[in-house]
Amino acid sequence: MQLSAPADLPAAFRRAVAGLSGVDLRPEVVVSELPAPQRLAPHAVALHASVLRAGDELADGRLVVLHDPAGQDVWEGTTRCVAYVQAAVDVEIASDPLLPGVGWAWLLEALEGAGAQHRAAGGTVTRTTSERFGALVDHPTAAEVEIRASWSPIGEDLAPHLVAFGELLCAAAGLPPTPPGVVPMPSTRRKRPAAAHHR
To answer: Does 192 have pLDDT greater than 60?
Structure first.
């Protein structure tokens, strides 16, 4: 993946963005660049990522890295990572009252495991179920978990934060952590309904 780095980016942020291009993620994670948001900060880059296995999309999300040379108080710094992840889950899992806490733990564990030093982390975990009626009654009840989170990287190296984002996606998709050199077992999760891909 080769990210574009506009010439008007501050030098330190341009170097940080360039460092994202060489990050190696798990083979199930497919990343592409998105148009960056214009109103959240003076400078930004945005990525889309999906977790794919055997042709099925198990999770998808976005990572936006914002940069304001003047800093923002709530960030406690000049750079902020903003992540959004959604994944289909079994209805039984969605109904578990522990799921939101588990979803937040996925993020913290991913950041720690990747060595992504940060401060001021915050976010929400939302679970939804969709009952279908009428012409759609033959489709199974759908359930999803959504994680929205942001944190401020410490230092200029953004690579560990992209790695953490990829691991968060894989955790939401139900993939176990994979030690280096170990081939993961095929997933047994059902294919996501097509309607879940569109928002």
So the answer is: no
Straight-line distance from the first to the last Cα atom of the chain, in angstroms, rounded to the nearest whole number: 25
64 in Cβ contact with 46 (< 8 Å): yes
Kind and range of the H or E run holding 101? helix 99-114
* C-beta atoms surrounding 96 within 10 Å: 13
Q: Which residues pair with 150 in a beta bridge?
A: 82, 122
How far CA 33 is from CA of 16, 61, 81, 105, 143, in Å, comes to 15, 12, 15, 27, 28
The neighbour count for residue 45, using CB atoms within 10 Å, is 25
Name the phi and psi angles at 67, rounded to 5.
-140, 125
Query: How many other C-beta atoms are found inside a 10 Å radius of the C-beta of residue 198?
Result: 5
**Can you say whether residue 71 is alpha, beta or left, with left for phi > 0 and alpha for psi between -120 and 50 degrees?**
left
Average pLDDT taken over every residue of the chain: 84
Q: pLDDT by residue (tens digit) across 138-187?
A: 777 778 999 999 999 999 899 999 999 999 999 999 998 765 444 444 43
Strand-strand pairing, 142-153 and 43-53: unpaired
CA distance 23 to 2: 10
